[in-house]
Amino acid sequence: MPESATYGRELGQKFSQEDYAKAVINILDDSAAEREQLHDTQRAVINILEDAAEERALLELTQKAVLNILDDSAGEKIRLEEMQKAVLNILDDLAGEMAERSRLEERFRSLLETAPDAIVIVDGAGRIMLVNAQTEALFGYGRRELLGQTVEVLLPERFRSKHPQHRLRFTAEPRVRPMGADLELYGRRKDGSEFATEILLSPVETDEGALVSAAIRDVTRTKHIEHQIRTSLKEKEALLQEIHHRVKNNLQIIASLLSLQSGYISDPETLRQFQESQGRIRSMALIHEKLYQSETLAAVDLADYVRSLTGILMRSYAANTQVRLECETDPAIVSIDTAVPLGLMLNELVTNALKYAFPEGRPGCLKVALRSSATGQLSLMVHDDGVGLPKDFQFDQVNSLGLRLVRMFATQLRAKIALHSAPGHTSFDIHFMETADKTPS
């Protein structure tokens, strides 16, 4: 082969390899650029994907928030509906309460207007807030004339200056009570005339504050009737006192007649009977004397009566001056139905002790005691330290008139008698209650 051909082939090969290398380098450069672009694109895609993931997460959060908001909105709607229902119920209740309050107010006004007494309601300052028709009729004022006025306008002028102090005392201690208990109260009409009143005060609590209700009644007729009754009672008391005085005098006359008659009696037994009758009559006369002297004609001061009767009996029967009397009494007030039988029993027991317990001038002590307890139990005791009763003495079977009277009157008083007797001691203890009914059962 010629040399030129061989060189040409080598040159062609040399250029071809360089071009190829360049081409390869270019390709590699382009590939690197493409790769870089691809990396950039990949990074961009990754960034896009990451942004998309964040957007998706944000979208999910937004979606959850929206769902929560929707749920909350639904709950708020339910709560709003429930609140609306509650408000409607409250409005219904308020409407019912207002209707009920209106009915109560109407009923109150109806009761106020139909009340038989004048009703005046005032506030804490004493201003008249409300009156009824009876107030207008009783005092002669129109309703509009009284509203806003102080309550003192309804009082006589002589009472007006001190009345505000009474109002303040009631306000400090409000309670239902009569005004001016035990005092003479008067009202004043529009024309200036006065009339006797009774007033009942009552505190009234309202939304506007504390008020005072005064129920006022005209008691002029009642006072007039009470005056007539008192006058009549005084007349009857005077008459009853005169009756007791005359009964006492008549009984004393009978006792004096028996005493005169006994002067003509020679039989000792008959004389004794006359003397015992005198003693019984004197005991009854003494009761009427005590009633005549007493301020209370229906009751007897039993302690005073016992002391007086035993003193009279001592002076009448105690021929033996060696006998000493001891009398102890607790305060006790009894009716005449109790005093009469008790006095007769005391007369018999004291008389028997004075006549038989101390024979032949024997010295001794007679003790009479009246005891009363807080329960109403009364006890009358007659004790002596004389010779005592016979051994075979039976109180339930004795036939002497005096002791039979004691048993009879004990039954009338529903009393219990305890008898104790021994040489040197005899006691009769009578226990009873002061009651309205003494009828034997």
TrEMBL record:
Which SMART domains did the record assign? HATPase_c, PAS
Q: Which CDD domains match?
A: PAS
Q: Which Pfam families match?
A: HATPase_c (PF02518), HisKA_2 (PF07568), PAS_9 (PF13426)
Q: Where is the PAC domain?
A: 181-231
Q: Specify the Histidine kinase domain's residue ranges.
A: 242-436
**Superkingdom of the source species:** Bacteria
PAS domain boundaries: 104-157
The record ties this protein, via NCBIfam families, to: sensory_box (TIGR00229)
Q: What is this protein called?
A: PAS domain S-box protein
**Protein's organism:** Duganella violaceipulchra
